[in-house]
Structure prediction request, 565 residues.
Amino acid sequence: MLNTDKWTCRHAALALAAFGVESVVTSPGSRNAPLLMAVSRHGGLRTLSVVDERSAAFIALGIAEISQRPVALICTSGTALLNYAPAVCEAYHKHLPLIVISADRPEEWIDQADSQTMRQPDALSNFVKLSVDMKAEPADEEQKWLYTRRLNEALDCALAGCPGPVHINIRISEPLTAQAEYHNEQFHRISVVTPPEKVSTTTARALANDVRQKNILIVAGFGAPDAALNKAISTLGRLPNVVVLAESLSNLHSDDVLQVSDSLFSGISADKSAGFVPDLLISFGGAIVSAPLKRFLRQADIAEHWHVGTERNLIDTYRHLSTAILISAPAFFPRFAGALNFLNKNCAGISPFKKAWGEMASMRNEGLRHKLQAAPWNVATAIGHVIEAAPISGMNLQLSNGLAVRVASMSCLDKFHRVDGNRGVSGIDGSTSTAVGASLAYKGGDTLLITGDMSFQYDLGALASNYLTSKLRIVLLNNGGGGIFKYIKTTRSLPEVDNLFRCHLNLDAKAIASAFGLKYYHADSYESLQEAVPAFFAGPAPAILEIATDAETDAAVLTETTTNN
Prediction:
């Protein structure tokens, strides 16, 4: 078969397939032509072409997160690579294996005023696990052996241990599109055998025995759904001395788990906070959204804190870390839960610690419900109605950062198959592109994105891709741009909040929907929302439902529901 004559480009494509890559998100260019030829002509790789490299990288991120498979990115030389940086950084902190392959100019032309040249090796070094640099045409058999080893190292590094992105830079000389016949080329994959990850029964029993009589608070950050982990956490949540707090992005669903939102912690007054402080804090998963939760745990006098996870560095978010358990949560908690459940099965009655948390959560949830029902038209009540009305059909939920993830967390999200958001670095860029990629990878139903107006405008390039599917629905929260800054304590009292923090967007969502071929719905009152929501979910997709609210009212309602009173 005719293929590029660039050996390293052909073998990079073979390596991707050998390591389980199925999807390659590419962007047009000339320097990367040999790479595009190689992946296109491989036959076992699906290629998706996206012009905007920043959007392309977030689409790849969404595919990787939902499919739980490595996804490759290919770009041309120059600043194209730098546009990958936000999504690659997010992938690094979310432990997702993106394989970045950048075409580069020959080394002798770098810094010589030649077009599309820059220093590409190590350009992403702060947020990739490994960077490798190679020529497209190895000088001899010994260099082919070296490059084969480097490709193995890079792809194994992306998948091994705590997964994450890697960067492969390939220097390509002209001619760029020369071809030759190649038949039955094989990639020599080097197998790496690692011991199975599992906590031993003996270790689990020893740990459980040490803490069996302690008040334990378990805090779950973001993570992918896992049936065994969910069962284990549910078992722990039923124990008389254990309280489990989980954010919606943790994808834990159980009646024995307390869902975290900012409003929950408004129920802990300073004079009674000691009754909510655990003897042992156990944390796992990714970054926490709730600032009040982080504040409470950092200020509490906690004697012992375990963090469970395979992160690359010690995680001491709450400033009490005493033990790092370097094993994944799904591998640790089932045996630990079984051991602690066995030891505590004959304990009589729940502890005052657990009772305090349960009563406070019940009171705050009931109070929140009444306050939102009585409030004027606002974003939190509107989103609560959208979530309640969403059909139970295996739908996935994507949340952008800022206001969207906070107001959605005030509602019960258990009906969704899974809930995700770009909480690795928590930037507002790329939310729509990530949702586009997620909708491409998710085969079980629709993907619903709830996004703010600033996030939506930031990522309009996602709508211009060719990959908007009939399974994508977008709820756009429009309060004039940056309404969250009227709510969060950091900025709400600043005199500059209106002219420097809020954008006052002139966002014509209806025109944007028409331009990109999306069905459009609008709501600016409870009455119009009740009319729009059924049509939005039942009608054709892709679709946008714009919910227009007033930033001042939103801020007042959110402040009221998250303040001690």
The chain has 18 helices and 20 strands.
